[in-house]
């Protein structure tokens, strides 16, 4: 049995069940048939960070950081201190003396950085009057330091003491940071990737220096991710996906993800027919080490690290730009979009020549508005060899605004945040029903009712 969820918005703590449509006989595992709306923010919620197995933190344009219990939907802490929007947020876990504790680091447009204890809600450390707003954060757990990216790159210790910093780069500043082997850091600065090396002296003092600048992108870099121990990837506003060697920083693979009809006899090429610059931009990259999922405008493209080619795609996966993605496995993935939906996909073979392209189980249903992505135009057999498509398997509609991102907690559920100021906790209805039944039987046993 397949279930389609239509979510509404109610007060915090309410639980809703969506209408159920029975198609087929078997229900997929971990299907989200219940939702819980979480209120607390009064502006756009842009960031979600997982603290542990049961807690997450949310932040956005209201400057608030809220800590939630994803099992119960309870708001645990409200962290107040920033006067303007949050621009970056991450967890920071430092192991010293056999004990570890996870804190939250936030950056804001008010040109400050804060360290928070999510257990108590207290602000432990703060740094104000920075030269510019920090746009990204990176934690180097092995060295027990963290890095902030703004117009300059700064390295801080666990006590919020500045260890070293680089020179001013550009007005655009650093927009993304990742850790590389051998104490190196890659930073996205406009069209370039700047490689920094962090040196730790015998007296534990640190210094940072630029050692390489990679200028192979033709447009501004929008995404930067680690792929595995030996590779990292970057995506640009002009839909360029570049795979880099993490040791020598040379290009390992290159793909210009656009879709155009290939000429007769020409080498087939993956291209997306996009006329607006925003539709050509790589909005987000994610990976499982074997594949890279690229969100290009409203489309999704799966790139194989091994074959260095796009192996599956859906050029119109959403009605608007895709903002966040996740590769659950080599065949299952998720995406959320400005169109207000979060969709689940399965990689499947393209139909044989002459067969119509299927729009998925849900293509025959509409509720108020069409949610069916346009079908993928059939290709010639020679062109379709090795290329697969993404089949829609689920569509979660509950937000009235753009879904900014989501975080999965496995069986405990899925959390989404949006421009509508809300968080939604999506849960497996069958699992929740079983948990409620066990809790009821336990209570009856304790009271002697059984």
UniProtKB/TrEMBL annotation:
Residue ranges crossing the lipid bilayer per the database entry: none
Which SMART domains does UniProt cross-reference here? WD40
* Superkingdom to which the source organism belongs: Eukaryota
Any one Gene Ontology biological process term? regulation of autophagy
What Gene3D superfamilies does the database record attribute to this sequence? YVTN repeat-like/Quinoprotein amine dehydrogenase
Provide one Gene Ontology cellular component: lysosomal membrane
WD repeat locations: 57-78, 104-126
Keyword Repeat on entry = yes
Question: Has the keyword Repeat been applied to this entry?
Answer: yes
Looking up PANTHER family in the UniProt record yields: WD REPEAT-CONTAINING PROTEIN 41, WDR41-RELATED
Protein name per UniProt: WD repeat domain 41
């Amino acid at each position: 049995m397949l279930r389609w969820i239509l979510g509404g918005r109610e007060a915090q703590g309410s639980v809703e069940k969506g209408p159920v449509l029975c198609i087929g006989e078997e229900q997929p595992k971990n299907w989200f048939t219940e939702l819980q709306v979480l209120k607390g923010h009064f502006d756009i919620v842009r960031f979600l960070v997982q603290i542990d197995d049961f807690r997450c933190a949310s932040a956005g344009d209201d400057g608030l950081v809220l800590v939630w219990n994803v099992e119960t939907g309870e708001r645990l802490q409200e962290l107040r201190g920033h006067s303007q929007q949050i621009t970056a947020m991450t967890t920071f876990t430092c192991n010293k003396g056999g004990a570890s504790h996870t804190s939250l680091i936030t950056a804001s447009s008010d040109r400050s950085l804060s360290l928070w204890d999510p257990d108590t809600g207290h602000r432990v450390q703060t740094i104000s009057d920075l030269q510019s707003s920090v746009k990204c954060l990176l934690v180097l757990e092995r060295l027990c330091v963290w890095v902030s990216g703004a117009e300059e790159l700064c390295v801080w210790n666990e006590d919020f003491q500045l260890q070293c910093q680089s020179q001013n780069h550009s007005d655009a500043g650093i927009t993304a940071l990742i850790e590389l082997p051998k104490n190196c850091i890659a930073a996205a600065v406009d069209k370039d990737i700047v490689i920094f090396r962090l040196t730790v002296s015998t007296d534990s003092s640190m210094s940072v220096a630029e050692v390489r600048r990679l200028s192979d992108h033709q447009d501004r870099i929008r995404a930067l991710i680690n792929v595995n121990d030996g590779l990292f990837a970057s995506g640009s506003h002009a839909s360029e996906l570049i795979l880099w060697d993490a040791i020598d920083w040379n290009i390992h693979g290159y793909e210009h993800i656009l879709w155009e009809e290939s000429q007769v006899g020409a080498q087939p090429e993956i291209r997306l027919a996009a006329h607006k610059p925003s539709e050509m931009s790589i909005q987000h990259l994610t990976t499982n080490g074997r594949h890279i999922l690229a969100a290009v405008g409203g489309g999704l493209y799966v790139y194989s690290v091994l074959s260095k080619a796009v192996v599956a795609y859906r050029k119109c996966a959403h009605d608007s730009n895709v903002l966040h993605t996740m590769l659950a496995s080599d065949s299952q993935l998720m995406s959320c979009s400005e169109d207000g939906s979060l969709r689940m996909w399965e990689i499947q073979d393209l139909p044989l020549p002459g067969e119509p392209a299927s729009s998925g189980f849900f293509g025959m249903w509409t509720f108020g508005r069409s949610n069916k992505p346009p079908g993928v135009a059939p290709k010639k057999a020679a062109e379709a060899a090795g290329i697969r498509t993404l089949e829609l398997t689920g569509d979660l509609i509950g937000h009235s605004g753009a879904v900014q991102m989501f975080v999965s907690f496995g069986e405990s559920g899925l959390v989404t945040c949006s421009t509508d100021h809300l968080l939604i906790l999506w849960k497996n209805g069958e699992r929740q029903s079983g948990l409620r039944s066990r809790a009821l039987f336990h209570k009856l046993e304790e009271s002697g009712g059984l």
